[in-house]
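Researcher: Here's my situation. A collaborator sent me these components and asked whether they could plausibly form a single complex. I don't have experimental data yet, so a predicted model of the whole assembly would be a useful starting point for our discussion.
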Amino acid sequence: MDFKRITLLAGHYGSGKTNIAVNLAMLLRQTRMRVAIADLDIVNPYFRTKDSQYSLEQAGIRFICSEYANSNVDIPALPQTLYAVTDDRELTCVLDIGGDDRGALALGRLAPAIAEENDFEMLFVVNFYRPLTQTPQDALDVMREIEAAGHLPFTGVVNNSNLGDETTPETVLRTAQRTAELCALSGLPLVFTSVHRPLLPALEGKLPNLIGLDLQAKIR
Amino acid sequence: MADKVLMKGNEAIAEAAILAGCRHYFGYPITPQTEIAAYMAKRMPKIGGTFLQAESEIAAINMVYGCASAGKRAMTSSSSPGVSLKGEGISYMAGSDLPGLIVNVQRGGPGLGGIQPSQSDYFQSTRGGGHGDYHLIVLAPASVQEMADMTVKGFDLADKYRMPVMLLADGTMGQMMEPVSLDLSVSEAPEKPWATTGTKLARKHNIINSLSLVPEELERLNNERYAKYDLVKKNEVLYEEFLTDDAEICIVAFGIAARVSKNAVVTARKNGVKVGLIRPITLWPFPEEVIRKAADHVRRFISVELSMGQMIEDVRLAVNGKAPVELCYRVGGMIPTPDQVLDAIENGGAKE
C-alpha cells in the first residue's frame, strides 16, 4: 500500500480511528525515517493516542498532542507543535481526528494548507456494527457532516467493522457488501480493511488490502 | 436475531430508553455521560421525540417532573455533581409519586472532583439523595448489555410503582465499549389514569403535587408510600451469586467493582481459596436476605468499592455481626486491580 505524506483518519466516534492511527504510524515507521502522529481530538477526554505515547516514542515516532490530553482537564486544546504537520514537508504524518463533525471542526485550521500542498489521503473509518452507522446511507451522512465541518474531502474508505472481543472472521466478511455500497455511494475507493491481528490468517485472500491491528494497551 | 452492535455504555442507555418508549430526554452535558445527550440529540429528532438541552440540571429534572405528570416516559442523565443539583427535583418527584428514569454515571468527588470513575454516590442514591423520607429504586449494571437491559427495566419499575428509578453506573461503564444485543424485552407503558392529560370534561381533575399542608394527611401519604416501598423490597430484589455455595470468604461488590472482583475470585479459586461473590444488582432494595443467609457459613466478608466504604454499611447490617466485614477500596477515579482484591481475599482487606 502506498501512502501520501499526510494520512488523516476521521469518522464516527468509536469507529476505531485512534487505534488505526497508532498502528498506521508504526507501519509507516518501518519504511520511513521521519514519522509523526498528531492527535487533533478536542472532544473526547478518554481513549487518546496519549495512551500509546510510550510505545510510539520508543519506535522513534514523533508524538504531537495537547498537553491536556489524559490530564483529566476536560478542555478542548490543540498543541502549538501541530504546525509541524504542514510546515515540515519532509515529515510523514498520521492525523487522528476527533469523532463526528464536532471532532472534525479542529481540522479546519489545517485544512487550507493540507489542501494546497495536496499530498494527503483523508480516510473515512467505518465500523458497521456501531449503532449510528449500521447502513451505508447512515455512514455516508456522517461522512458528509465531517467533510462540511473539517473543510477537507475524503479520498478513501477504511472498513474497521468489529464487535470487540466477539469479532470473528465472519463478522468482518459480512460487512464487505455494505462497504462496497458505501464506496459506490461516495465514489471513493476502499483503501484497506483493518482487523485485530489474530484474525488475519482466516481472512487472508478473502479480502483485499488487509491490515492487522495490535490493540493499544495503556502504558503510563 | 438481529446483529449485535458495538456500543458504549452511555449509548446503550440512550438507545434502550428509546426502545422502551421514552421520547422525552432532558439533560445538561457533563463528562463522563455526555454521550447519552449526544446520542439523544441525534436520534430523537428522527423519531419524533424531544431532545432538550436544558439551561441547568435543575431545569432538566423539573422538565422530567412535568413530562412524567403528563403520563409520558421521561428521563434525564448526569454525573455526580449534576445529580446533586437534581436532588430537589428528585425529592419532588418522589413526593408526587411520579415515575421517571434518572441516570447517574458517577465520577470521583466530592465537589467538582474529577472525570474518572467512582461509586461514591452510593449513599446519595440508596438513601434518597434529597430531602424527606423517600427511596429510589437503584439499579447497578455491570456490563454494557446490562446498561441496556436495566434501562428498560428501570422504566418498567418506575411505572409499576409510580416512583423514580435511578440507574447508577460509573465512568468506566459509561465509556467502555462492548457488543450488545438490542433484542430487549420491552413492555408497553401501563395506563396512567392519574396523569394530567386533560379531563375532556369526562372526569375530575388530576392534580400532581408534593405540597401537603395538613400534617395528618402528609403523615398518611408517607405511610402509604412506605407500604409501597415494602412491596418493592419484597418483589424486586436482584442480585447475582458467583461460587458462593461453599464460600468461606464472600466478596460483595457491584458494577465495575464486581467485574474486577470476579477476576480475583477466579484466580483465588485456582489457588484453592474458597471464595465467592455476591453482586447486588438492585442497590435499593438491597439484597440483604442472601447476604444474611450467606453469613451462616461465610467466615469473612469483603466489600469491594470505588468509595471510602459506603455499601459496606448495608453489608454489615445484613451480616448483623455474624462475621467480620472488611473493606477493599480505591477512590478519586482509581479502580482496584484484580491483584489488590486477590490480596484482600488472601491476606485480608482494611479492617475496622
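Model: Some features of this prediction you could bring to your collaborator: The longest strand of chain B covers residues 100-106. Chain B has twelve helices and 14 strands.
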